[in-house]
Amino acid sequence: MCGILAALSRPGAPVAPHEHVMDALRHRGPDGRGSACVTLLAGVDASDDAPAAWLGHLRLSILDLSARGAQPMTSGDGRFVATYNGEIYNYVELRRELEADGARFRTGTDTEVLIEAWARWGESSLRRFEGMYAFVLVDRARRTATLARDAFGIKPLYYAETEAGLLVASEPLPLVRAGRLAPDLDPEVAYEYLRFGATNANDRTLLRGVRALPPASVATFDFDAGALRAPRTYWQLRPTERAISLADAAAECRERFLDNVRLHLRSDVPVGAALSGGIDSSAVVCAMRRLEPDLDLQTFSYIATEAGKSEERWVDLVHAQVGGACHKIRPAAEMGPDDLTRLIRHQGEPFGSASVYAQYLVFERARREGVTVTLDGQGADELLAGYWPYVGTRAAELARRGDLAGCLRLVTHAAPGARGVAHTSMMLAQAALPPGLRRLARGLVRREVFPSYLDRGWFAGAGVDADALAEDLIGRHATMKDHLVSTVERGSLPNLLRYADRNSMAHSVESRVPFLTMGFAEFLLSLPSEHLLSPDGERKHVFREAMRGILPEPIRARRDKIGFFADDALWLRRHADRYADVWEELAREPMFDGAELRTFVSGFHAGRHDKAQLVWRALTFGLWLRELRSAA
Known about the structure:
- By secondary structure, the protein is an alpha+beta fold.
- The protein folds into three domains: 2-185 and 207-233, Aminohydrolase, N-terminal nucleophile (Ntn) domain (Glutamine Phosphoribosylpyrophosphate, subunit 1, domain 1), CATH 3.60.20; 246-383 and 491-557, HUPs (Rossmann fold); 568-631, no CATH class.
- It is 43% helix and 14% strand.
- Strand 8 and strand 9 form a beta hairpin.
- The two termini are 27 Å apart.
């Protein structure tokens, strides 16, 4: 796990080293620092002896801790040079296959396996890698550089085109510093964040000149043309359907999950786990103990102080079964204004909830206890129908098929009681209504697509169609599986992965997510929908069955969901006076209606409304703007 930075030059534009920018990524790799100027081969230009690429690397040592694992790394024949961030968990198996084909290795790293795999298999090697990664690999003979990112976008990769060529980095703000880019905002992404909390829905970022390489994508930079070809997708998660009994599906799910955890335990440094007490992270921890009975198991849990929000009971149940050291994070004081500013700096983008800080503290404690790698349950909700909105989508799917009895059964059993049925029915209506009626329904319940404190004229003038973007983000999915794919590709998961990457790397910790492998995802999306969400509304149905005898029974059966909880509204109101200057700065931004913004914020602090999420998004947006402009 590391931080990477690269500069790829256009013809006639000498490449410039960016050593001074690497300090901005130091937290991602405190164990080593390297860079290389790379020349190309087989050219006809007299200037070919001049470097065409500069590659930088900041190392967090996980495999082969010796100096042999330093990067940038060059292939044995000198043709390929790579700077790489991430882990390829099946590198041992791939190495054996490559050795049988004649490859010789000098290190024990997965980096060298990546390079040798690319040398033999090219782009098809990406389908063989089980892991999380982002890399830039220069092919000196073909005079190209390849940019690639893992199937789910667990590891980040950003790029920006400049007059001199292409800049690439693990985080967006270093690109602003390296390329001297103007800090211009993308109006559509700004709207999507301020209204819906989305900043990772596609390849666009809040910065107009900075793009994210999409998950499961590869792109080629041609040094002779001085251009980046359009990214290509090497894998897509698409629903299929096969006939399989629940018992057989659960048995296969169990085997695949344990295999995933086994691979994710490969490390030359201590491995622990982030434990919320929910089904997913608890399953990971219990699987770790089952697979490695002698593992020095350490877990890290945030224990909320808000009434009814503590997960401590569930955390204790897990440790009563697995033993090991349980580190509970009980903040002596809640997040303060300085903490929020520091968190914005590490995230590099605004974020939608104070719960991100709770996760930040978990990784901080892991590093303090000497744990460099943690396993986490991220991704299970999106693949196993763990969120409530999937219930509405499934109910609508059944209704459209004419299975009204199945629809009614799901609605009445998913959340028993009048309040639960009403909530599920609202989700059903949102999923089933066509766009025009959905807009009308939102108006009736005063669910605004365009908040009053945003300047509608400014956004319209910038070409933002708020209604169309809202429909695109909220979506109307034909099936529940389509809904799952949507949240994996452009919904909740990209945001959650970004939060976890920045929070873990802020403390030089590698966060691994064993639910997110191509094979496991394809398997889950091939199962009958009722195996994911039972006819009686039990979410993660097949996984619960698979975890019999592995999870403590009360956790396997629990239906509530809390996670690392922090009270946004309480925190915002407690620190209302500390951010008066931020609100005034935002009120002067042209995208905001200053008078309406002041009214909205003061109304929240006075208790006239409780739209804490919208207030939080605007506040962190304002703080992020400060960071951006100070970095430019």
